[in-house]
Amino acid sequence: MRPMRIALSVLVATAAMAASQPARAALIYRYCASYEDRGDMTCAYDTFQQCLDTARGGEGGMCMENPAWHPEPAAPVRHKAKRKNG
Asked: pTM for the complete prediction?
């Protein structure tokens, strides 16, 4: 009976830790390939060149910046405090 309690405790603790993890946001890529003939848009490219390589592949697509993409804010610049000599 004791091993069963330990196993159950471990299972409950693992489930509680998994449930407490914050949900990760969906990754939003910067560029989209749009295919007008199909009415399809695929936003799965980090670089414009990746998009072009895919869209030009006989599919007749064009590339554009993803309207849902927003650049990450720049990290704040930290200045070191000046030391007083004396």
From this structure: 0.53
